[in-house]
Amino acid sequence: AQSVTQLDSQVPVFEEAPVELRCNYSSSVSVYLFWYVQYPNQGLQLLLKYLSGSTLVESINGFEAEFNKSQTSFHLRKPSVHISDTAEYFCAVTDANAGGTSYGKLTFGQGTILTVHP
Amino acid sequence: ETGVTQTPRHLVMGMTNKKSLKCEQHLGHNAMYWYKQSAKKPLELMFVYNFKEQTENNSVPSRFSPECPNSSHLFLHLHTLQPEDSALYLCASSQVGYGYTFGSGTRLTVV
Known about the structure:
The complex is a heterodimer. Chain A is mostly beta strands. Chain A contains no helices and 12 strands. Chain A has strands spanning 3-6, 10-14, 19-21, 23-26, 31-38, 44-50, 56-58, 64-68, 73-78, 87-95, 107-108, 112-117. In chain A, the strands form 3 sheets. In chain A, strands 2, 5, 6, 10, 11 and 12 form a 6-stranded mixed β-sheet that branches. The N and C termini of chain A lie far apart (41 Å). Chain B has no helices and 11 strands. Chain B has strands at 4-7, 10-13, 18-25, 31-37, 44-50, 53-57, 64-70, 73-79, 87-94, 100-102, 106-110. In chain B, strand 4 and strand 5 form a beta hairpin. Classes of the chains: A mainly beta, B mainly beta. Chain A binds chain B through residues 32, 34, 36, 41-46, 49, 51, 90, 92, 94, 96, 98-101, 103-106, 108-111, and chain B through 2, 4, 6, 30-31, 33, 42-43, 45, 48, 50, 55-56, 90, 92, 94-105, 107.
């Protein structure tokens, strides 16, 4: 079984400040890791993912996340946030060798609400 | 548009009504999912379908009845719901290793 812990339920920051949203996971097998973003009254959108290769992955809108296997973490960072980044962010994990009934099934954290103030 | 379409976007129903939520994807994905998202609670996985076969039912009450007629369509049939069933119902599809593609959700209110 896998689990995901997002350490902060709410993160308020000022515009243009840096931000880090923390995510730790627990798994006995190799994993793929994801960050999703949810804007108000919308579904979840994939922000970035780690499957293999470089442990630092980036999104097109300036977010990045680093996979740290020894610390079982996948923290999300942005050096300078915008008002438009205000949303809820979800970290998720799946078994990298999924098959059968666990075919790609994701386990989600509880979400972190990022609020960017002017 | 994400490639996963959910209808309706909003639904208000009485406790004695019967309604259905629809989800459609043409991404060629083989797995489809229903999630429930309630305020102040984590996402709850309800059902998983792989290649049209239900592979997971997370102790969901029988007043929720899923149907997957083909790999592109997924329904959630609702009957005799309770007010605590009011939530955002999210459909997603996936291929293994690529994460989910979510629909925009159906905001359900039970009155």
